[in-house]
Design a protein that fits this description.
By secondary structure, the chain is mainly β. It is built from one helix and eight strands; from the N terminus they run αββββββββ.
């Protein structure tokens, strides 16, 4: 009898150990749940700040000129052929942007050196074979403008408008049918002033850096030019109307982001 009790006690102990071990193993196999990290939100590009940069591109301009006073070869009111000039340009710019929600307000100044040159030939309506060759060259262009833009993340589309200034030089020479320079006006250098409008697209590509593509239209109005014929000593007046266009690619570095 005592042997039977001992046997049953041993079975009970083994069963208990087996159940306890099974529960411990099952607990160890349960998956461990951890809290997922918060999603990473990409930062929104901020256009606020001072910036400086450089640009390069191409510019072209048109000079329309009309005789105000007559001379032996061209009557008063005569419209000469347009002088079209064109050439590469390069320069610097700087400004300030302030972003309000998706709108960006700013001011910007630019200075561009250029080698835009050109000439035109106009034949006299009074003396057969006589012709005048007008030449022109633009040395530099400066602008100061306000900008209004709309942004979506790293992109900024904008329009601009303000004042424009340029330095130009040119002259006019009259040739007879044999090609002899019979009279002319020495080259003169003068400053032009007017207004501009423009449109552009800018992209912030890395940290404080951005690139832009811009088109500008400039109008310098009408100016009256006075010159003295070097052969006959006649005082001649011409009215000049000048416009210009520029396409530029630029790079900006921005300080003091918001």
């Amino acid at each position: 009898m005592s042997e039977t009790k001992a046997f049953l006690s041993g079975v009970a102990i083994v069963s208990t150990l087996f159940v306890f071990g099974s529960q411990s193993a099952g607990a160890a196999d349960l998956p461990v749940y951890t809290k997922a990290p918060p999603p990473v939100v990409a930062p929104v590009y901020d256009w606020t700040g001072l910036y400086v940069g450089g640009h390069a591109g191409y510019g072209w301009a048109t000079d329309k000129n009309t005789a105000v006073t007559p001379n032996p070869t061209f009557p008063a009111g005569f419209q000469f052929n347009d002088v079209n000039v064109g050439g590469g340009l390069g320069g610097v710019q700087g400004g300030f942007n302030y972003q309000i929600a998706r709108w960006v307000l700013g001011i910007e100044g630019e200075f561009s050196w250029t080698n835009a040159t050109g000439s035109s030939t106009t034949f006299s309506p009074l003396i057969l074979g006589d012709r005048t060759i007008d030449s022109n060259k633009i040395d530099w262009v400066a602008t100061a403008a306000g900008r209004v833009g709309y942004t979506w993340n790293n992109w900024l589309g904008y329009v601009k408008g303000g004042g424009a200034w340029a330095q130009a030089n040119g002259g006019s020479n009259l040739f007879d049918p044999a090609g002899t320079n019979i009279t002319g006006h020495p080259n003169k250098t003068g400053q032009l002033s007017g207004w501009l409008i423009g449109v552009g697209l800018e992209y912030g590509f890395w940290n404080n850096w951005s690139v832009k593509l811009e088109y500008d239209y400039l109008d310098f109005g009408t100016r009256r030019d006075t010159s003295i014929d070097k052969t006959f000593g006649l005082v001649e007046l011409r009215d000049h109307s000048d416009t210009a266009q520029m396409v530029k690619i630029g790079v900006n570095y921005r300080f003091d982001f918001g």
